[in-house]
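Chapter review: from sequence to fold.
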Amino acid sequence: MRSTIQLPHAPDHSVKKSPPSLESQLRTAEHRVRALETELAQVIRHERRRVAQELHDGVGARLSTLQFTTRKLLEKNDRDLPRQIAEISQAIEEIGTEMQQVAHGISPWWIDGYSLSLALHQLAARTTHPGRLHCETICTGIPRHLPPADCLHFCRMAQEAVSNAIMHGSPRHIGIRMEGSARALTLTVEDNGAGFRSCRTIPGRGMRNLRARAAALNATLIFTTTPIGGIRMVCRKRLV
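The token string follows.
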């Protein structure tokens, strides 16, 4: 008959960790709450900047053009008044839709290179008023697939530049060029108006928004005076 001999267990020298105290758990929870509050505050600040920028560069620019149109209508009795009033009504409806999109955080519909080109051509068409102001757009070599954010920034910058030209330079012609190559994307907006006394006198919020969008694009932004006295804005984003 076999007997079973039980050997004594080796002593356990490991240190058992005691559970964290209630005070320690409360401190950890407080740190997490503070971190979440800081993150929430940053999100709120970012969203406020986004809405303010979209309203100024998008809706604000459209309203400036609309104001220019109505002011010109009051200057003379135009036979084409019914058509122009219809265009103003349509513009107001489009602005209302755009404000709803901004309020709901929805980007406009230009989401690729083709749509950006179309949006810039539509900007020129809305800005043109026969006999008073001609605006034209030339787009060449724009890549078909551009990040939606880049498309939005370029379009908003064009809107802001056109609005500034109308409000401060009273031009007869505005040119918009969007050019793409394997090395860079370049947006140029220039006019033949009176220009600014200095490139530094561009309205504060407009300049801040233009510079912020150029920074978001990681692009350069340069203002120069044209030979005839207008303003030329060039935003260039290097691709390589």
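Two observations follow directly from the output. The longest helix spans residues 22-75. The two ends are 87 Å apart (CA to CA).
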